[in-house]
TrEMBL record, chain A:
Annotated source species: Nocardioides simplex (Arthrobacter simplex)
Signal peptide feature range: none
UniProt-recorded name of the protein: ABC transporter permease
Membrane-topology annotation of the record: Multi-pass membrane protein
GO CC terms: plasma membrane
Family under the similarity heading: Belongs to the binding-protein-dependent transport system permease family. CysTW subfamily.
Record-annotated ABC transmembrane type-1 domain positions: 65-255
BP term (GO), one: transmembrane transport
Primary localization class, coarse: membrane
Amino acid sequence: MTLSRTTRRLLAGLTFGVLALIYLPLLVVVVNSVNPSQSMTWPPDGVTFEWWRRAAHSAGARDALVTSLQVAVIATALALVLGTLLALALQRYSFFGKHSVNLLVILPIALPGVVTGIALNNGFKGILGIDLSLWTIVVAHATFCIVTVFNNVQARLRRMGTSLEEASADLGAGVLTTFRLVTLPQLRSALLAGGMLAFALSFDEIIVTTFTAGNGATTLPIWILNNMFRPNQAPVVNVVAVVLIVFSIIPVWLAQRLSSDVEAAR
Amino acid sequence: MATTDVADARPDQAPAPALRGPVARPGSRLLHRWVWLRLSLLLSAPLAWMLLVYVVALAALLVTSLWSVDSLSSEIDRTWTLDNFRTLLDNEVYRKVALRTVGVAAAVTVIDVAIALPIAFYMAKVASPRVRRMLVVAVLTPLWASYLVKVFAWRVVLSEGGLAEWSHLGSPGYGLTAVVIAQSYIWLPYVILPIFAALERVPDSLLEAAGDLGAPSRMVVRTVVLPLLVPGIVAGAIFSFSLTMGDYITVNIVGGASQMLGNLIFINAGAANNLPLAAAIAMIPIVVMLVLLTAIRRTGALENM
C-alpha cells in the first residue's frame, strides 16, 4: 500500500498535534507552580517560589506520601507473589475451569472502579464488620494489582517455552531448584515490569481507595482530592502535581532501558 | 547408529530423571511425580485470595442489594426485599444518571477510538523506527502521570481566567463537556496502546500485497487493516468504557453540579448510610459490563488485555 504524501503529512500532523495537546495541560500545571496568583489565572504575571516553599513544609502532604508508599509497597509485594503463582499455574498446566480463573483475574480491572470499591467496602464494613484502615486499602489494591504481574509473567513464560526447564530436570535438578536457578532468573525483567506497573497503579489509585480508606489512612491521591478545592491549598496541590509529573518519567525511562537491554541481548 | 536413534527417540520409556538423580530430595520427588500437587500448590494461594476477597465481596454485594435499611435505627434489615430495585426503576433521578453515565462512557470511547486509530496507524506503519520509538515513549509517559494530576490540570485549564478562556477558543467551563474532554484525555493512551500493538502484528507484506493487487489505500485500510485490528480496538474500547463508567472523581472536579452513578453509590455508601441502596445502584454498571463482556468474548479481545 502506498500512501500519498498528503495522507502521510496529514497523519503526522494529527499525531504530533494530539501529542502536543496531551502535554499542554501538564505544562500548564508546571508553569502554574510558580504563578503568583493564588487562583492560577493565565497567563502568570510573575514568578514566585512561595508555593514550593509551602509544599516542602506541608506535613499533610508528607504523611500522605508515606502512607501511599507503604500501601504501594505491600500491595505490590502481595501482587508479585500471587500473580507469579497464578501465571505459572495457568501457563504451564491445563485444568478444568482455567478460562474462568483467567477471567476472574481480569475482572477487578475490567469492572468499573466504583463496583470494586463498593463491593469491598460492603464486604469489609457490612459483612465482616471490620473498620476501614490502611490494611483494607492494601487488600483492595493487591486484588487489582495481581493482573499486571500476571500478564507480564504469563507473556514471558509463553515466550520462554519449557525446554530449559526440562533440560534442568533431566540433569537432575528438583522442581524448586529448577524454579530458583532456571525459571526465576528468566522472569526477572517481567517481574520488574509487572511490579512497576502494580506499584504505579496502587500509588495512583483513587476511586477504589475512597471506598476502602479509613479515617486514619490518607493516601497522596486522597490528600490531593481533599485539598484541591481549598483556595489557599490549591497552589500547594499544584506543586505536588509537578513533583508527581517529574516522578512519572522514571518508570518510562526504566522501561525503555529494560527493553533496550532485551534487544541488546538478542 | 540407527538402533540408538530408536532408543533415544522414545524418552517416555526412560526412568523419570528426578527419581534417578541423587540430588532430588523427597519433597522435590513428590512434586515432580504429582502434577496435581504442583498445580494445587501454585493455584491455592492466588485462587483463595481472589475468591475470598473478590468473588465473595461481589456475591455479598448482590445479597446486600436485596436488604434494606431500617429508617429508625439505620441498621441494616436483613429481610429479602426488592424495594431498592423498585426505587431505581421508579425514581427518575436514577434513570437519568444511569443514562448519563453510559452516555458519557460511550462518547469517551468513540472519541478515543477515533483519535487513537490514525495515531496508532501512523506510529506503527508510517513513522520511521526512530520516530516510532520516540512516539511510543511520548504516548507512554502521560500514562504514568498521576490520574488526579491530569484531572487537576484540566480543572486549571478550564477554570475562570484559565488558559482556555484566555485563548479565546471558548471555554466549555465546568460541566458534562468538561467531563468528556478530561476523561477522553486521561484514557487516550490506554486506547492507543492496544491498537498500536495489534497494528504492529499486522505484517507490512500484507498491506503491500493488497496494494500490489490494485487496492487503493482506503480499501486496504477498510478490508485488510481494520478487520485485523478488531481485537485491539475492542480491548481499548473496554478499557475506556469501563474506566469512564466507574469514574466519579473527574465529575466531582470538572463536572460542575452533574453527577454520575459513582457519586450516587459513594453518597449512599457513606454519608447517606444506605449500603443496600448503594449495592443496588452498583448492579447497573455490573450488568452493563457483563453484557458487554459476554458479547465480545468471542472476538478473542479479552486475551489481549
